[in-house]
Amino acid sequence: EQQEKWVPRAVNMEIIGTYAQTELGHGTFLRGLETTATYDPNTEEFVLNSPTLTAYKWWPGGLAHTANHCVVVAQLHSKGVNHGVHPFIVQIRDEDTHMPLPGVKVGEIGPKLSFSTANNGFLGFDNFRVPRDSMLMKNAQVLKDGTYVKSRLSKLTYGTMVFIRVMIVTDMAYYLSVGATIAIRYSAVRHQSKPKENEPEPQILDYVTQQHKLFIALASSHAFRVTGQWLWTTFVRVNKALTSGNADTLPELHAVACCLKAVTTRDAASMVEACRMSCGGHGYMTSSYLPILYGITTAACTYEGENTVLLLQTARSLVKAWQKGSKGKPLSPTEAYLMDKSPVPKWENTLDGIIAGFRRVSAGKVQDCVSKIDKLVKMGTSYEDAWNQTSVRLVAASEAHSRAVILATFRAEVSRAAAALSPPLARVLHQLVHLYTVYWALERVGDLLLYTSIAERDVQELQQQYEDLLQKIRPNTVGLVDAFDLRDEILNSTLGAYDGRVYERLMEEALKSPLNAEPVNQSFHKYLKPFMQGKL
Ligand SMILES: CCCCCCCC/C=C\CCCCCCCC(=O)SCCNC(=O)CCNC(=O)[C@H](O)C(C)(C)COP(=O)(O)OP(=O)(O)OC[C@H]1O[C@@H](n2cnc3c(N)ncnc32)[C@H](O)[C@@H]1OP(=O)(O)O
Ligand SMILES: Cc1cc2nc3c(=O)[nH]c(=O)nc-3n(C[C@H](O)[C@H](O)[C@H](O)COP(=O)(O)OP(=O)(O)OC[C@H]3O[C@@H](n4cnc5c(N)ncnc54)[C@H](O)[C@@H]3O)c2cc1C
Questions:
Q1: Is the CB–ligand 1 distance for residue 23 below 6 Å?
Q2: Which of 10, 56, 338, 480 could join 124 via S-S bond, C-beta 3.0 to 4.6 A?
Q3: How many CB atoms lie within 10 A of CB 243?
Q4: Which of 58, 296, 309 should be mutated for ligand 2, with most atoms under 8 A from CB?
Q5: 418-438 pLDDT tens trace
Q6: Do 325 and 339 contact (CB within 8 A), yes or no?
Q7: Is 335 among the residues known to form the active site?
Q8: What angle do CA 165, 319, 231 make, to 5 degrees?
Q9: pLDDT tens for residues 82-133?
Q10: What ipTM is given for this predicted complex?
């Protein structure tokens, strides 16, 4: 009945909430969170407290001035025992006056790289009392007398984060579609330089280097949308099983959500930055929207699980899978390829050949990590230290695994959908799959040379395939970004507007600057003139 109590009020916006988990002192290590929720059986209340400055919640979006409630993650104490972190729904502001309630200290954390519209806040409690039903009791409960009933699966507390990580993959597809639309439309309008003296300045979109910077962002948007859809379907299936008490598939979902969130956010941030830089000085204008878009995508590398930490979570799963598989036990579908002990096949410059190659790279890297850890432990190093000394390789193995998942999913889903598409559209989408796959083979050619039978002539041929694909995709590029159908109001960009009037829009935006309100700014009289007259 907790859902009946809270959900309708949240849906009709009586309750505006945020997720208050991260503290000044801890964001990654959740078991180290310091906020306490101590049960008082005499009053059937929890007492929330921030015992130290580092216990203050810090970062939650909207916490400073928007939210009047929040989900607080705190260490649950009852009958003198600490039962670990649990979620509580807590009212922090009066619903009429919006004043912070007594015992609640809340405020704004200050300017950030981007996301300036989100008032991220801090929150401290001074022995703040909330009723027992504030504890979200879907998984674990505290009875009236303070008896703690543990959850059938402790990690269900972390479930919210899996959900958001799954959503983030699709978010990155969207952000890349915005960046690609702005940069490709601008590159169609911008003319620059004279490679041929007797011809007009060409569109910068015709420079192959410009195509190399931008087409991967366009292809990645589709790859992440397709992968995000597959991941969502997987999430729904796992969640359904969880509801009927079966948690067998949760570890696989957690592992694949971690590495996909990490790789898609890192790619989105670096590719949006490439979009910004491909637009020259005008890409550096806030009015282009590209700097803001960069700030948004780079934040995603940190929030909802810092990328390195998440890649190491997936590596933990890959190492466990290797150890399980080596004992002949079955592996999850996404990790089953790790046990492919067949001899390394002759390299093929095909999509299937490259996908198989990335699986070989991932399996090879995992095997190298396991051997290094085993060797260090045999020499007397603790497992934790051996893990840490191998962690650079573990992150690389996790990335290779993630790339193999994205490549295979993108190819399979587009091939499946192609049957229902017109031949010209199917051909263009296959070109994007081909470009994405060959791009990453060239980006990771060192790994492929280490773990597969790819030879130098294969690499030369792949480079030529890649350049041919840039040429094939060029005529459809503007059509492909128009197909994202992003309205000008959403793009919010002087460079990406549908009508292509970039110079008029840049000037219109410039003239809105308050610094253009008068021809001589007061700073001349206050500072420049006295300085020039030697009076400062
Ligand atoms: C479509 C267009 C849309 C456009 C617009 C969209 C709008 C978007 C706009 C703006 C969005 C802005 C949104 C911002 C949102 C940000 C919010 C936040 O940031 S909330 C804070 C996030 N914080 C973290 O994620 C902490 C990360 N840390 C952790 O998760 C843990 O501390 C961890 C996992 C690193 C370590 O936790 P240990 O120490 O308790 O666990 P260990 O010992 O490593 O593992 C124990 C076992 O638990 C499993 N495990 C760990 N986490 C799990 C999980 N989540 N689910 C299932 N199992 C898990 C592991 O696999 C492991 O299993 P075995 O023991 O190996 O079998
Ligand atoms: C824009 C934005 C919005 C946010 N919104 C929210 C929100 O709404 N609610 C909320 O609760 N939080 C929110 N956060 C906080 C976010 O979840 C944390 O910043 C994130 O979990 C990282 O934790 P941290 O900041 O403590 O970094 P740390 O964990 O201190 O990481 C710092 C460095 O240490 C490394 N490191 C840490 N642990 C390990 C390890 N075990 N192995 C190897 N390296 C390690 C990391 O890789 C990183 O390089 C937001 C953050 C941002 C930037």
A1: no
A2: 56
A3: 8
A4: 309
A5: 999 999 999 999 999 999 999
A6: yes
A7: no
A8: 25
A9: 999 999 999 999 999 999 999 999 999 999 999 988 999 999 999 999 999 9
A10: 0.96
